[in-house]
From TrEMBL:
The keyword Signal does not apply. It holds the Pfam family Pyr_redox_dim. InterPro entries: FAD/NAD-bd_sf, FAD/NAD-binding_dom, FAD/NAD-linked_Rdtase_dimer_sf, Mycothione_reductase, Pyr_nuc-diS_OxRdtase, Pyr_nucl-diS_OxRdtase_dimer, Pyr_OxRdtase_I_AS. This is Mycothione reductase. Keywords: Disulfide bond, FAD, Flavoprotein, NAD, NADP, Nucleotide-binding, Oxidoreductase, Redox-active center. PANTHER family: MERCURIC REDUCTASE, PYRIDINE NUCLEOTIDE-DISULFIDE OXIDOREDUCTASE RCLA-RELATED. The lineage of its organism: Bacteria, Bacillati, Actinomycetota, Actinomycetes, Propionibacteriales. NAD(+) binds at residues 181-188, 271. It comes from Kribbella kalugense. The active site is at residue 447.
């Protein structure tokens, strides 16, 4: 049986590990899908390219408030789609080609297939060409990611539906789209398709969209969403059916009884589950938790010595920057077994690239209250800063939560233009222990730039000693 020093399963963030420093290692890389994984092919990158095109398409709908009358003439969907995948697909193909054939990878064997453990540190790969390969290794990296959850709604399989994996490749724009779910994917694709002229309905089980955000942010987002889309909260999808004219009937149960909706396409966006089940982890003794996430320690090592895991297959933060961070930790620990480093999950930020945009780091007010953590909140509206006036923004705000005594920031939540960019200094301050009082006062803030919303939120904190 072939034996490797290292086997990496999954070419999302896992693919970033093997470089020239592994030149003396005999390495195998296993990939069942498209090289490059979720973020590149069906996740962060194409979605944000669609979001930018959507922002451009949505501009005329808001321009008259500046005294500028614009008109959207057309959205050439296939051109939008093909420009985006015309950039992405060659990158994925190039990554695969590089690993398969470039002399840099003379020590690397790529298996295009699905890996599963068939013994202790023994992997069997069902290759796409129908063959099977069996090999062992000293060390493994489990970087198999996650996949969309498909809820058990009767009729779903028969009717046909989309997930984030397929919706971006639609042959044409539908007239009507229903989105089941109310999280990141729902919020981003609702903006994309509504901006392109599609009638979007969001079917949400709870009262609020993005309900894991700080409550005021989720409430504000839901209010704004109701003005743009048909938002049906407290609606449970109970059945879907294909009608004779080809459209799809969605049946929902609401507090007022049965509700119905007719659409042309359906997007299911109710979360993602780890791909750990594909790996038959019992065979090698790797444990998973109650949510099927691979259990790891602070070094990203699983319950088996020499088997590491990273990214969506192990973390509750299903985010690319987390997968990348963990990949760097795993890489270091593989190369430096006697000087391993721990991963840092203290302040994991996230952003929702919808309209408006949202960004968040640290505790929400609700979490601080639940945990009995004392805090003060400083809030500033975009409407009260100069750039907010320029944009005529009426709905955005930044909220900073800090320890009243030490001024250490414990959370920040922003909804409004450029939120994912505006929040970055707070992530830095939290990571390096800079207190809110010093952060607000001991540096220049460019006037009249958007981060003034953050500067003022910090200045509005009632810290002791008095600021
Ligand atoms: C629509 C969408 C938008 C997103 N937008 C953002 C964003 O804006 N910002 C952000 O931070 N995150 C975003 N994410 C999340 C981000 O894409 C993921 O957190 C990240 O890609 C996870 O990386 P990973 O390396 O863990 O897994 P992946 O990139 O999913 O890689 C796992 C790879 O392993 C392969 N694989 C799985 N099992 C096996 C097996 N048994 N054998 C062989 N190969 C296997 C899979 O085919 C896959 O290619 C988004 C996700 C989605 C779905
Ligand atoms: N900008 C970003 O960083 C970004 C963008 C997209 C996706 N992602 C990642 O991908 C993950 C998956 O995104 P997502 O939007 O699918 O999941 P999500 O976890 O963000 O939201 C899923 C929502 O669906 C609801 N839900 C669950 N089961 C349901 C059901 N049966 N019927 C109706 N609603 C149901 C949940 O209550 C939740 O509100 C995210 O958690 C995020 O980590 C990140």
């Amino acid at each position: 049986m072939t034996h490797y020093d290292l086997v990496v399963i999954g070419t999302g963030s896992g693919n970033t590990i093997v470089n020239k420093r592994f030149a003396d290692w005999k390495v195998a890389i296993v990939e069942r899908g498209t090289f490059g994984g979720t973020c590149l092919n069906v996740g962060c990158i194409p979605t944000k390219m669609f979001v930018h095109a959507a922002d451009v398409a949505a501009t005329p709908s808001g321009s008259s408030r500046y005294g500028v009358d614009e008109q959207l003439l057309d959205v050439r969907w296939t051109d939008v789609r093909d420009r985006i995948f015309g950039r992405i697909d060659p990158i994925a193909a190039g990554g695969s080609e590089y690993r398969h054939h470039n002399p840099d990878n003379a020590n690397v064997t790529v298996y295009d297939g699905t890996g599963r453990f068939t013994g202790f540190k023994e992997l069997t790969v069902d290759n796409k060409d129908g063959s099977t390969s069996v090999f062992s290794a000293d060390q493994f990296v489990l970087a198999g990611g996650s996949r969309p959850i498909i809820p058990p709604v009767p009729g779903l399989e028969e009717v046909g539906f989309h997930t984030s994996n397929t919706i971006m490749r639609l042959p044409e724009l539908p007239r009507r789209l229903a989105i089941i779910g109310s999280g990141f994917v729902a919020a981003e694709f609702a903006h994309v398709f509504a901006s392109f002229g599609v009638e979007v309905t969001i079917v949400a089980r709870g009262d609020l969209l993005l309900r894991y955000e700080d409550a005021e942010v989720a409430e504000r987002f839901t209010e704004i969403a109701r003005q743009r889309y048909d938002v049906r909260t407290r609606h449970e999808t109970v059945r879907v059916e294909r009608r004779d004219d080809g459209s799809i009937l969605v049946k929902m149960l609401s507090p007022d009884g049965l509700d119905e909706l007719i659409v042309d396409e359906l997007l299911v966006a109710v979360g993602r589950e780890p791909n750990s089940d594909l790996l038959n982890l019992d065979a090698t003794g790797v444990e998973v938790d109650s949510e099927a996430r691979v259990v790891v320690d602070e070094y990203q090592q699983t319950t088996v010595d020499g088997i590491y895991a990273l990214g969506d297959i192990t973390t509750p933060h299903q985010l690319k920057h987390v997968a990348n961070h963990e990949a760097r930790v795993v890489k270091h620990n593989l190369l430096n077994p006697d000087d391993r480093v721990e991963s840092d999950h203290r302040f994991v930020p996230h952003a929702v690239f919808s309209s408006p945009q949202i960004a968040s780091v640290g505790l929400t007010e609700e979490q601080a209250k639940e945990r009995g953590i004392p805090y003060v909140a400083g809030v500033e509206r975009y409407a009260d800063i100069a750039y907010g006036w320029a944009m005529e923004d009426t709905t955005g705000f930044a909220k900073v939560l800090a320890d009243p005594k030490t001024g250490q920031i414990i959370g920040c939540h922003i909804i409004g233009p450029q939120a994912p960019t505006v929040i970055q200094p707070v992530i830095q301050a939290m990571s390096f222990g800079l207190d809110a009082y010093s952060m607000a006062r001991e540096q220049y803030w460019i006037h009249p730039a958007m981060p003034e919303v953050l500067e003022n939120a910090l200045l509005n904190l009632e810290l002791h000693p008095e600021g």
